[in-house]
Amino acid sequence: MKKQKRYYNGKRVFTLPIGANAFSFYAVFVGKKADNETNIRHEYGHTRQLEILGLFRYLRRVAFPSLTANLLARLHKLPFDYYSSKWEHEADVFGGVRRGVQVQPDARYDTFSGLIPLFFKRKKRK
Ligand SMILES: [Zn+2]
To answer: What's the gap in Å between 15 CA and the centre of ligand 1?
Structure first.
């Protein structure tokens, strides 16, 4: 039997050997352990941001800060919930994902350059 192509709201969904990770770039890519509705909806939300912002603004406002925050979170240096950032929350809204009440991070962490100093902080603050 031929494998069916997967779509979510018109976007292709691909499964990759990336474990519990997921990302999007025009299409949605999920690892086996991240293959769930919440992640697919969220990544779909990022594809909408890309369409609305255009490639360069998307890279500047979403992709770079998101990658930076992701790395900081892995280093336990992100002082706020990853999904509470402006761009991640917006992806949730576009994808119809609800994560409950979240505190918005300080506005200085809204940009890529605002996140960089966090790499040089010693400890994760709560
Ligand atoms: Zn995201």
So the answer is: 17
How far is ligand 1, taken at its centre, from the CA of residue 2, in Å? Answer: 31
pLDDT tens, residue by residue, 73-105: 999 999 999 999 999 999 999 999 999 877 889
Q: Is residue 80 part of a domain?
A: yes
Residue 2 lies in a domain: no
Cα distances (Å, whole numbers) of residue 33 to 13, 15, 22: 14, 10, 9
38-75 pLDDT, tens per residue? Answer: 999 999 999 999 999 999 999 999 999 999 999 999 99
Structure pTM?
A: 0.90
Domain region containing 91: 7-120
What is the 13 CA–ligand 1 centroid distance (Å)? 15
Q: d(Cα 79, Cα 117) in Å, to the nearest integer?
A: 12
Indicate the number of domains in the chain: 1
Residue 125 belongs to a domain = no
